[in-house]
Amino acid sequence: MLQRWKQRFERGQDAGFSLAELAIVLLIVGVLSATAVPLYLGYTVDAKTVEAKALAGSLWETLQMNAIIFCGTSSSVTGSYPRAGLTSSGGTTPGRWSVNSGGTNTLTADCSSGAYTVSASPLFVIQGDSADVNVIQVRLVYSSAGTPPSTLQCSKDSGATFVDC
To answer: Mean of the pLDDT values across residues 68-77?
Structure first.
């Protein structure tokens, strides 16, 4: 039996992959990577957008809490920075996100009805500062006539277009 195997290999009948088989494998790997890479990149942008949305939600909740505590008095967005986990200049530590507008905007809660009044809409915008998130923006838009009155809008193209997120 061993002799037969030796003879087979000595005659140049070595087993291996043909060029066609290798080409087919490369084609399959290429097609899989061509579809997987764009999907992966989309998932990472969505995950980074969720990070900005979480920060915007934290700032909005803190701003509402301040407006209710100081009922009838305007509460500024900047006054909510410390409780939302932001620095006094409106950035995160490390410097990944910042509030790039809305620092002077205010929210007022009516003591009797509980209705909110905003000084401007959007109330604030969260902007990506580091290289991997610099095209992402999330803003909070408030309209008392809207359903719901407060909505988050996201942009993945440096603020050129915003959609509800």
So the answer is: 92
Stretch among 1-5, 22-26, 36-40, 113-117 having the lowest mean pLDDT: 1-5
**Cβ neighbours for 129, distance < 8 A, ≥ 6 positions apart:** 91, 95, 96, 97, 98
What are the DSSP calls for 36-89, one per residue? HHHHHHHHHHHHHHHHHHHHHHHHHHHHHHHHHHTTTS-EESGGGTGGGT--TT
Q: Hey, what amino acid is at 97?
A: W
Q: Which of 131, 128, 116 is nearest to 65 (CA)?
A: 116
Claim: this prediction has a pTM higher than 0.90: no
CA distance linking residue 117 with residue 114, whole number of Å: 10
Alpha carbon distance 50, 165 (integer Å): 9
What proportions of the chain, in percent to the nearest 5, are helix, strand and coil? Answer: 40, 20, 40
CB 126 within 8 A of CB 98: yes
In Å, how far from its chain's centre is CA 112? Answer: 37
Question: Residue 14 above 70 pLDDT?
Answer: no
Q: What are the distances in angstroms from CA 76 to CA 81, 83, 86, 118, 160?
A: 9, 13, 14, 10, 26
Alpha-carbon span 140 to 122, nearest angstrom: 5
13 pLDDT higher than 70: no
